[in-house]
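Protein 1 of 2
SEQ + STRUCT:
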Amino acid sequence: MHTVTAVSPTTILFYGGLSTASRRQAASDPTIYAYAPLSPTPFTAIPPSTTNPSPPPRFGHTALPFPPNSPTNSILVINGFTQDYESSIFRVTTSPNATWSRVNSTSPSPGVLHASYGHATAVLYSDATAAIVAIFAGTTTGGSSTNALTVTKLTHDTATDIVTSQHYNPTTNTPPDATSSSAFTAATNGAGVMCMYVHGGIDTASATIHSSLYSFCPTEQLTASTDLGGSNMFGNELFEWTSLVTHNKTFQPVPRYARAGAGRSWQ
């Protein structure tokens, strides 16, 4: 339940995960590790910053390169479990040291980022200074699964090098059941719109393992100026869930959980 994040075509960052057999104890290692296969010394531990050290180590988080659409030396770490259920986004830059900063809202967000680990995350839009990210489901406070959804807009002020966020909880049609540890990825649909795809997962309350396969897509192409706060204006939903198993009876995925994820792929 650690993350492996490609920040460029030649560099991968490793972070977090469990270091014991107990799911209730977070990893004790806060180190960011880099793998650069073309380097003479491909594996390195990135030394921590003395002025902006890491937050508590965690597992069950997700991580994305930021900015997502160009080679970078920073990632965003979303939620996870430390000694509690996290509701947070941190940015860590890795050159020359691992320097951490919390991503805060510029003003009170219209929505909330639900505390979770084992959630799914996908980039639905990105440019050089902004990204729109979907964060779905996971295990939440009390140990139960959730199907809570947050759509977060992230903005990078290049003058100050500060990343800020705004969270939204859009109205949608019927979402998937509450799950944790689903597999997920981001890819375009037939209309060329970037979507999140979520498969399987486990309901931690009933121990039911799911076989569902859903897409979560904007109903129109997102841009940096999309009004996420107006997503249910006049009943016109900006996002919709589609059960791909229902639409394609010839494909019945096997129930499974213990997630794998790629919230953003290099193209």
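Protein 2 of 2
SEQ + STRUCT:
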Amino acid sequence: MDKNRKIVLILFLGALLITVGVVLLKKVPYPPTYEYGEIANNLLKGKGFSFNYYGIIETSPTSFMPPVYPYFLFLNLLVFKEGGLLAVQLFQCILTALISVIIFIILQDLFSPFCGIIGGAISLIYPPLIGSNRQIGTGTFETFFLMVGLLCFYKIFKKKESNLKYKLLLSLSLGLGGLTRPVILVLVPLSFIWIFISKKRELLKHFFIYGFIGAGMIILPWTIRNYIVHKKFIPISSNSGYNLWIGNNPFSTGEIIDLTKYGSPQLLAKLKKLSESEIDRVLHREAISFITHNFTKVIKIWSKKLWYYLWFRPHVGAETKNIGKLEILGYKMFYGIIFILAILGMIHLRKRWREFFLMWGILVVNLMICVVYFVATRYRMIIEPIYILFASYFLTILWNKLVKRKKRVIQT
């Protein structure tokens, strides 16, 4: 076994041991399953992929949530019964271990094996990568698909691999990632811009076939299903209006709020008469109206969301009810250090901006989406491994300077 494979194995087993240990030692008997759990339970009851829109309408076939995670949860509950949720958590541990390996490979390819080791080591102890496995939610899945997508794009971009492996993985990661959280598909248009500014137009064919067509073929069956159900074109999910309203209404806080609690009686009465797709359209229209007629207030809300995204929202961890104050404090301290190092790393790499445009692009787009909609911890969590990449690079620079200084001292 060569050195790199040993490092990969050590990182994978180390991450797996840590994450599984945290899941088992800090086991949550009944973790909240949110909308995913309701849809999964409806599948178990033979009601199909259905949802009641928080009690506003009767349970009916839905496109409110992207399908990958609810179906995954359903299959685990079907096979493992009472142990289904634990099986989900343990599978998420495997994905987290693979994320550590991906971080190492990307850094090794872009910088050096030593830089990869630093990044992999950081990922082993990075709080949200470990803690997210205790939750029943899409955070780990989203992060995994995004990082696989980035790895494949850079492998193809650097022409390190000539076989189909990374091209097919690109299609799978974008297709399944888009069916987990559609924002991951932003990588596709960003990749086309990347090709143009990098003057590597020979890659356009590969990115178009495997990034656009390949991912589209995976998503297409779900889009067809949505049209059959709703008689409307819904590519993946019908929650855009809901999410936009959450972040843009008279009671918006920048975090998630309860539509049934803060929606006006007139609005709720109107929604109860509508179908799911019509509710989405009405909420979208209500949010746009609020934005256009309350510009000063919206700027304040969006500024608040920007701060919540870059740092932390007031009620981080409140929804899960299984994260302690010390864990949140540890996360804040760790994140603060990584964020500062990442910014320094990005500044140091500013002359290579074309090479890192894809990473910077997804950082900016994800931030903009959260500022316009609303901030949740898992929405930022998916891009934090990119912070680790840049932070690891800067730590490598510091280490190299320290070593050179020590050599000079010894020689004198």
